[in-house]
Specification:
alpha/beta, 9 helices
Length: about 260
């Protein structure tokens, strides 16, 4: 039995090391300001602690001496948290598979990081999907939405407009919303640029984000179709975990509805 516990401790330690290495990969890819990247250090620390409990006899003994009720309640809490997490991930994945080919009057492209004046990889993925859609639906007006954040020399909307024009999208088809700093504001301020409140709309964002974006729009009275853009493969674990927590947060504060 003791040998099995020690082996489990080695597994926990290995998982902790993987989490720390993944954090380093995120920083190398997206920089030190990558949102939610701290989670992987936290998770790595939790795995290291679990490994220490299994590997260090005095800690293992202390754990064994905990009241049974405490252990049972802890197990129930962890199981409930995992079930809730998997449910939210299922909702996110369900929106990732949409075709997003329905014709709409307005296409809202949500902003992402701009490095100086250059769009980031995530934003270029959104813009490429938007350009593809606009080429196929020539009557659709596009709203590029995003303000100017830290480390950005221009607004995200301005960088997005320049990118789309360089890819052959007519300037007169592009409306700029350059004040928003989060998804909720993206939707609210973009709605104000739509001349007809009954107009149909689609929302372009990276695939992991379109579920939350569409349901934030729904909370604001806009029934928009999600139009998913691809994401960087190596960042999927980070994006999916971060997005699950973001969905819970937005539900808690009333920003979105199911």
């Amino acid at each position: 039995m003791l040998r099995k516990i020690e082996r489990m401790g080695m597994i926990f330690l290995a998982l902790g090391a993987l989490c720390v290495l993944y954090y380093i990969g995120i920083v190398l890819y997206a920089g030190l300001r990558a949102s939610f990247s701290w989670f992987w250090l936290f998770l790595g620390g939790a795995f290291f602690l679990a490994g220490a409990v299994c590997r260090i006899p005095v800690l293992h003994t202390a754990f064994e001496r905990l009241p049974s009720l405490v252990k049972v309640m802890g197990g129930i809490f962890l199981a409930a948290g995992l079930a809730g997490f998997l449910f939210v991930e299922g909702c996110i994945i369900s929106a990732m598979t949409g075709s997003g080919e329905e014709p709409v009057d307005y296409l809202i492209v949500l902003g992402a990081q701009v490095k100086g004046t250059r769009v980031s990889k995530a934003l270029s993925q959104r813009l490429s999907r938007a350009a593809e859609y606009l080429m196929e639906h020539e009557d659709t007006i596009v709203i590029v939405s995003g303000g100017q954040g830290q480390g950005e020399d221009i607004s995200e909307a301005s960088a997005m407009k320049t990118w789309l024009i360089s890819r052959g999208i007519e300037e007169e088809r592009i409306l700029e919303e350059d004040k928003s700093v989060n998804t909720s504001q993206n939707i609210r301020f973009s709605k104000e640029l739509m001349e007809n409140p009954e107009a149909s709309a689609g929302i372009v964002s990276n695939d992991f984000h379109v579920f939350r974006a569409a349901h934030i729009a729904k909370a604001q009275g806009l029934d928009a179709i999600p139009i998913p853009a691809p994401s960087s493969l190596g960042m999927y674990p980070h994006y999916m975990v971060r997005e699950a927590f973001a969905v819970v947060k937005d539900l808690a504060v009333g920003n979105m509805v199911f």
